[in-house]
């Protein structure tokens, strides 16, 4: 066993400051920051324009021949789904169906210019639609007079509801725009994955209950407020014997067929060029059958009815409605942004580009403000519709723009074809698309085994949202989540440190709770800025380079010589841009079928360019980490694998024993991430690195000196306390 001995003076803070002169750093004053913020030059103006209008950035690199056809196919497919979902989600908002077409058009056009995500499909989102519907039915109930609001005089019930929906959407847009301008996009971090999962599961239950009246063909007034779901179920079961058999059979048939085909789409998505648009197909069939057999007259089926041609005149919001709906508008603004940002972040990581949370708030705020002026209701993104846009090959928001054109064609020309469509079909489509949100309940057993406070947050948020309503339920969920943080911070598991005889090592006699907020250590976070490179991007570049090398070897344009790989052709070589399977680019580099192992820091053949990685070792100091939740475990493991796969040795020091135990219980370690990377102190890790990479080895450079050892290495030591809250 190797040993070391350290001899140094005993320092107090003053004594250390006397011996070691401290470097004086000039800190910028508030005045300097303000002056710099308001200073304008050509470069800042250009950056501001690119930031405010992100489409300029990707339009400049748009690959017309490679991307246009994919965007057209994606736009048409997404547009057809957007038409159907717009009609269906209007029922959730307690509005006439055609107003959903407005929501699938105006916000999409605005987001094209202002949004930073290239893949999400903007439009109606079922949870937001339901929240709008709760406000609408509260101010304009199905039974009884509406609330006394100036501006309702002389309007029909539907017109009053449209005014309420448009006004609350306008107010929601103002809130989102204000948050974006104030640069408070970080607020989404306070909505954890657990809280959002519980909230959306509860919303799915509300949506399911709200659609039962259409599936059963019953007349049930819309209710809102605490226990509204209980009262709605009571009204449904009281008149269950009045169920319209035609509506019920049609709905069951639609749900069974759509569910089966969606499962086929999911199972064979790798083999299908585009997903089968089963909702659209069944809607067309239902329209034809309803028209042929005159369901409305012969079977008393409630149908969509007249769809006006064209768009309505814009209108301003009602200020009195603002005062009545401000409490509901704020959670709508938060939920709409949180869901859209989460989906956008998934696709941005998959396709390797950056999104801006503050700009997304501005984009959705402007989309909802302009959309509300033209009588659309709250817009965000629907997970299923975004999945269609991305899976059918959409590369940019050109696909979104084309989907809006499809919606416009329906609105201006062929909307009358949808008039015989039974509302029970729309209800069935809404219900079958709830599968993903309802199946989130499977997370409860996992959370209970791995992180019980997170499980409590999930359960309380879900139950409160079901019983009290979505707005109050979200507030309760946020309160419980904050209480769990306070509880962990205020009541830690205290420890008594005991010295190991003859060493400078101290171990806790008892464990205590710890946490790290990994949302600050993601692919676009601050952690990788300390390292100086993005390991995932480097890994993808390396795997693309290997694809190119294999391709050249197969063609005979690259040959193995005594000096290594030699290019035999003189023509230009293009880097492989095959994005058919992006997941393969995230896997470890594989040299098994190559005649030589590539040295990534040397000059590569065929002028292949791969970013250099000059760091061979990374130390993470976990001494200030308080605890790790499930989301943090996943994020940490992904970050470690990215670094390991680009041949950077990672070491974690001063990690609490409780966290190590949790890592083992959660099966954190595997063939890549091993428990051997954990060291007691930073000094131990440094000595280990020094032993593996002697000072006189290649590529040495001064990085950090520990104690009085002459450690001159390409190594980085990060104190994770800078990454915690």
From TrEMBL:
This is STAS domain-containing protein. It is found in: Membrane. GO terms for cellular component: membrane. The gene is LOC110500093. GO terms for biological process: transmembrane transport. Pfam families: STAS, Sulfate_transp. Keywords: Membrane, Transmembrane, Transmembrane helix. Residues 565-689 form the STAS domain. InterPro entries: SLC26A/SulP_dom (IPR011547), SLC26A/SulP_fam (IPR001902), STAS_dom (IPR002645), STAS_dom_sf (IPR036513). The chain crosses the membrane at residues 68-92, 98-115, 122-140, 186-208, 214-233, 245-262, 274-293, 329-349, 361-378, 398-418, 456-480. SUPFAM superfamilies: SpoIIaa-like. It comes from Oncorhynchus mykiss (Rainbow trout). It is a multi-pass membrane protein.
